[in-house]
Every structure is written in structure tokens, then in C-alpha cells.
TrEMBL record:
S-adenosyl-L-methionine binds at residues 122-126, 145, 205. Belongs to the protein N5-glutamine methyltransferase family. PrmC subfamily. One of its GO terms (molecular function) is nucleic acid binding. Residues 114-257 form the Methyltransferase domain. Pfam families: Methyltransf_31, PrmC_N. This is Release factor glutamine methyltransferase. PROSITE patterns: N6_MTASE. The gene is prmC. Keywords: Methyltransferase, S-adenosyl-L-methionine, Transferase.
Length: 298
């Protein structure tokens, strides 16, 4: 099969399956099979594909048509200009989440914070923890998650981005002893510096979809992304409730707590933070939706 014909066939198939960007995705899958970058598709459109290459392409197209997200097929997603490994154990990093990382980077820059001690709760792929470690060269990050599969993926991403020396990992459940485990962890001991509070910054993009709404999500999300990464309890706010409360024990006055929130949740999360945090504000994402809520420990 000639490359150009394979590509056209792929585009047609994805289009018939109602995939929004069929040409882009067929191209990505073809590049993945051939292990080449996109320019190859234009410069070698007469390339004669080996049978096994075409079969692999056809199998990937079939998976995509059945709803599997592209990133779980290729195993990669770009985030903050870094390349992240994604496995079915983790949520695919979203562009919206870059808003949260940018807010934290802005805070570090504006305050001149040195040797920042950062906690990322529900690290998933590690996209937040690893990109903060990449951009803030003197920080140390503790990344926690309930899922061993997610932690393994996040660790692989830390190594891939060369920040494994400054990112530590801890398994735990925010509803069951995680915060005590953090306080007892080697990270807390190393970074305490005899100050009040263990962290200068706590950041989280927790699961925030109300349980009943999960079944209404696009099948690409609900059938393939991990339920534990999505389910925020009855009203979607369970994680915000426990984290706003427990985080106060780990932060010293003036330290930052910053959350990603779901559509329409900013006001509620703001309300949860009011008791123990001051100068609370929300920040919009590129689509103009309130995406981050942040405040400083009173
Ligand atoms: N922290 C990861 C991310 O932002 C995972 C979030 C989650 O699983 N809820 O992508």
C-alpha cells in the first residue's frame, strides 16, 4: 500500500466514525506506525508501506473508530511543551490544566520564592508535578496518587524529563490517612527546615465530575479514562472539601493552595476556601471559563 492511499483511506474511515479531526488523527497514527514525524508524510507520500506497517495502521484505526482516545493508542501527550507518556492508568493531560501550572509558575516568579516545596495531590500522569519541576529548577515536588499504575507512569515521566532527582512519589488516599503519611514521609523530614508547614505550594487537579454525570460524558472519556480520576463524589466537590481542610495543616501562613476546577465549580470551591485562605481569586482558561481557584493560607 502506498502511503498517500493509506492516509486517504484512514481519513475516510475516521470521518465516517464522526471523529472531529480525521486528517490530523490519521496522520498522527500513520507517523506513530512508521516512527517518523509529520514532514515525512508530505515528503514521502509515494512510500510503499510494508504489509505489517499497513496492518498495524489498520488496527490502530480500528481502535480509534471504537472510541479509544488517540493518546492511549500512541501513548503520548504534549503538555507545557513537554512530551508525556500516557497509559490507561492515567487521565490524559488536558490543555486546560496548563492554566494551573502557569498560575503556580507566576506565583513563584512574582514572590521570588526559592527552593519551593510543592505538593501535587492526585498526580496522575505527573504532568503538573513534572512540568513544575522542569520549569522551577530549584523546587522539590512530592507527587501523590491513590493509583500505583498512575504513580509508575508519573515516575517514568519524571525520568523522561530528567527531573527524577527533585520529584518524590507517595501512594495514598486523601480520604484515608494520606495527609498523616505525608507528614511522616521522608520528603517532609528533608524539607521541613524547622519552619511551620511542610509545603510552600499545594496544587491539585482532583477528580471533579459529579458521580451521576459520568455516564453522560463522551464515550471516549467515560469508557477509556480511569473512573478514579474523574469521580468527584455526589456533587463533584468531595476532593475540594477534604483537601482545603487538610492542606491547612501542611501549609504555613501565606503559602499557596491552587486548584483546577470544573465548569461552574469556581464559586463553590471559593466558598470552601474562605474560612482558612485569604486573597482568593479565580483564573480563566483560554476558553474564558473559570478554571483555577487559588488562595493563601491565613
Ligand atoms: N494531575 C493529573 C492531571 O492534571 C491527573 C488529574 C486527575 O486524574 N484527576 O492531568
Amino acid at each position: 500500500m502506498i502511503l498517500k492511499d493509506a492516509l486517504l483511506k484512514g481519513i475516510k474511515l475516521l470521518k465516517s466514525a464522526d471523529i472531529d479531526t480525521p486528517a490530523l488523527e490519521a496522520g498522527v497514527l500513520l507517523c506513530h506506525v512508521l516512527n517518523v514525524d509529520r514532514s515525512f508524510l508530505y515528503s514521502h507520500d509515494d512510500y510503499s508501506m510494508k504489509d505489517e506497517e499497513y496492518e498495524k495502521f489498520a488496527a490502530f484505526l480500528d481502535e480509534r473508530v471504537r472510541g479509544k482516545p488517540l493518546q492511549y493508542i500512541t501513548g503520548h501527550q504534549e503538555f507545557m511543551s513537554l512530551d508525556f507518556i500516557v497509559t490507561p492508568d492515567v487521565l490524559i493531560p488536558r490543555q486546560d490544566t496548563e492554566t494551573l501550572v502557569e498560575v503556580v509558575l507566576g506565583h513563584v516568579k512574582d514572590t521570588g520564592l526559592k527552593n519551593a516545596r510543592i505538593l501535587d495531590i492526585g498526580t496522575g500522569s505527573g504532568c503538573i508535578a513534572v512540568s513544575l519541576a522542569h520549569f522551577v529548577k530549584d523546587c522539590r515536588v512530592l507527587a501523590v496518587d491513590i493509583s500505583e499504575g498512575a504513580l509508575a507512569t508519573a515516575e517514568a515521566n519524571a525520568r523522561r524529563c530528567g527531573v527524577e532527582d527533585r520529584v518524590s512519589f507517595l501512594k495514598g488516599d486523601v480520604f484515608g490517612g494520606l495527609f498523616n503519611a505525608i507528614a511522616q514521609s521522608p520528603f517532609a523530614k528533608v524539607t521541613e527546615h524547622n519552619e511551620e508547614g511542610i509545603f510552600d505550594i499545594i496544587v491539585s487537579n482532583p477528580p471533579y465530575i459529579p458521580a451521576e454525570e459520568i455516564k453522560t460524558l463522551h464515550r471516549q472519556v467515560k469508557d477509556f479514562e480511569p473512573g478514579t480520576a474523574l469521580n468527584g463524589g455526589e456533587d463533584g466537590l468531595d476532593f475540594y472539601r477534604v483537601i482545603t481542610c487538610e492542606a491547612t495543616k501542611l501549609l504555613s501562613p501565606g503559602s499557596l493552595l491552587a486548584f483546577e476546577v470544573g465548569y461552574g465549580q469556581a464559586k463553590d470551591v471559593w466558598g470552601l476556601m474562605e474560612r482558612s485562605y485569604c486573597a482568593i481569586k479565580s483564573v480563566k482558561d483560554l476558553a474564558g471559563i473559570d478554571r483555577v481557584v487559588m488562595g493563601y493560607r491565613k
